[in-house]
Amino acid sequence: MKKNINAIILAAGKGTRMKSESPKVLHKIFDKTLLGYVLDAVNKTNLIAKSYVIVGHQAENVESFVKKNYDNASTALQMPQLGTGHAVSMVCSQLEDFVGEVIILCGDTPLVQEETLTKFIEYHRAQNSDLTVMSAIFEDPTNYGRIVKNGDKLNSIVEEKDANAEQKKIKEVNAGIYCLNWQKIKPAFSQLTSNNAQGEYYLTDIISWGGKQGLNINAYTLENNEEIFGINSKVHLAQATKMLNQRIINRHLENGVTIVDPDSTWISIDTEIGADTVIYPSVYITGKNTIGKNCKIGPFAHIRGGVELGDNVKIGNFVEVKQSKIASDTNACHLTYIGDSEIGSGVNVGAGTITANYNHFTKVKSKTVIKNGASIGSNSVLVAPVEIGERANVGAGTVITKDIVNKALAVARAPMKIVENYTK
Ligand code: UD1
Ligand code: MG
Which is catalytic among the residues 86, 124, 334, 360? Predict the structure, then answer.
């Protein structure tokens, strides 16, 4: 498929109700920003050449996030923010000569899915549409722009604050996602006016503008309203996290993963899990991870990202793993920290093992390597960088500061004394 559509993502708004020092779109669900979800959904359609993110409030932070993480995205500054139509006009000069479709979305709707965007674009193309707006049917449409139709024909979008009593009853609302034939709609942006209740340049006015030009304008109705759930407060953020988690858990259940208690299990969107793996209650998995088949995770385990587990791996209670590879048939069943490590197969990591990976003064993190078949005794500390050889044995309670060769025993322990009749 050709990647020839441009995306415009509106993210300049202030997000006052978040009551936060950080810009709204950089708030996170698991380890990913709200804007990151939207950009990922857009990119996963495999239809988008480039995304333009409109920034304003705390523009520098949003801009550096985009630069650092997305090489097919750039930002355009909107200052001051005079409305959604004004926001889009910030990229008109950059797209002056662009011929093709542009899709417009908001940066604060992290639940939007790539399949929906793809279907939306396909619909736009099948209708030979010049402008398609995504709509949704809400029992309570309050605060959304209403879709006003003339019979089947889309007439205009009227904002809540501009709607009359009759229009307020309309349950079909503007979902805030648009697909447009850029060259045909672009002239609208220099003709929008702010003659409305909010004194803003409304993006939604391109609908009535297009109607007057005799363009082909259509609405595509969203199947699952959850996808346009917009985040405006920390309450919304928590609700969206739950909704997303539920969706992810259902996907894993359908793929043959056993999840004992979906209500207490948290799994990030970028985690792959093989069939027949069992996730026990109170497990938190964040970031990007791959978990193999037939593993046992939890109860009470924390997988923090950058983790690759082979098949038949056990990560038990109060075990934390981050940035580590653990090969098949290895167990770390109790009270353990594994960070920046590479662990072979058939290894037993005893209860209370710690990979000491971090030097607080130099801020350097170092690697621990444990080769196939090694046994790490309980309550051991492996001070990285360090390597434990194949089938080597670390005695319980040992602090390892040097590499251990294959098949050797390493034990560092004060000799035990027995004092007879001591309490007498
Ligand atoms: C908008 C739509 C409304 C729709 C709703 C769906 C308009 C006029 N109204 O309303 O019909 O039902 O979304 O959620 O478009 N933004 C900028 N610059 C601005 C103003 C806004 O970048 O000058 C961004 C915001 O950061 C946000 C998005 O645009 O991501 C939407 O703005 P918002 O103020 O939330 O619009 P709504 O009033 O919700
Ligand atoms: Mg909004």
Answer: 334
